[in-house]
Amino acid sequence: MAHKHDHSQAIIEVTRQLPSDELLCDLGDLFKLFGDTTRMKILYSLFESELCVCAIAELLKMEQSAISHQLKILKDAKLVACRRSGRTNIYFLADDHVRTIIGQGYEHLTEGKED
Amino acid sequence: MAHKHDHSQAIIEVTRQLPSDELLCDLGDLFKLFGDTTRMKILYSLFESELCVCAIAELLKMEQSAISHQLKILKDAKLVACRRSGRTNIYFLADDHVRTIIGQGYEHLTEGKED
DNA sequence: CTTTCATATGAATCTCTATTCATATGATAA
DNA sequence: TTATCATATGAATAGAGATTCATATGAAAG
Fold it and tell me: Of A100, B20, B25, B47, which shows the fewest CB atoms inside 10 Å?
């Protein structure tokens, strides 16, 4: 009611269809995981093969610590998982939605070429 | 070569398959757009119907200015577009990938219920 | 058991970004 | 033309998050 012209009907209708705040937050949080270049590179690397932490660090030319921190975030979100092998930790994709979601983004970018 | 154990072969292989830095950055930037609750709510609202700025502001109970700023970001990214109608600006979805991408995220959330 | 290697983690820093406030723009109505 | 409404926008602020540094943990080798 802050403005003069009326659209209360549209608002009521859209509100009815809108998912819960909690779900919308969760959705934002999910996509936030993909919204960082480092995490994107990590995920893309794991598309090809499972990798240990220092391999990813070398691959991306970044510090091991930075990679570990990001892997923790991805692991907490259950997008990746890891297993021990000797004293290395080998990470791999834990969810195939990752491929689908990133694939959709990829399509969007490669189709709409005019920018 | 910062570590002792060797995985240069894996690194070479993965590097070969990895998209360019530019594409990976663009992908990150794209998903960053979905990684914010306010933008997510705006996009979800536009799923249902085209809306003017102040309708979105009322709907989300946020300031008009905040909404305008976010709409600009979405518009620059060509995810939404707008048309003039009198003195109101009516925004609508400009790209159907938006629905697909968010839909995939939605599925991921609603399927994996254990958290 | 001590040393070394691979990884994890806490704290600090720095950057990025979302929101707010104030104001500008642009269109319509009077 | 002037007043009003709808939106846009620049600057400032505040908060979140990514990286680094130093260090802790944990496993294996000697």
Answer: B20
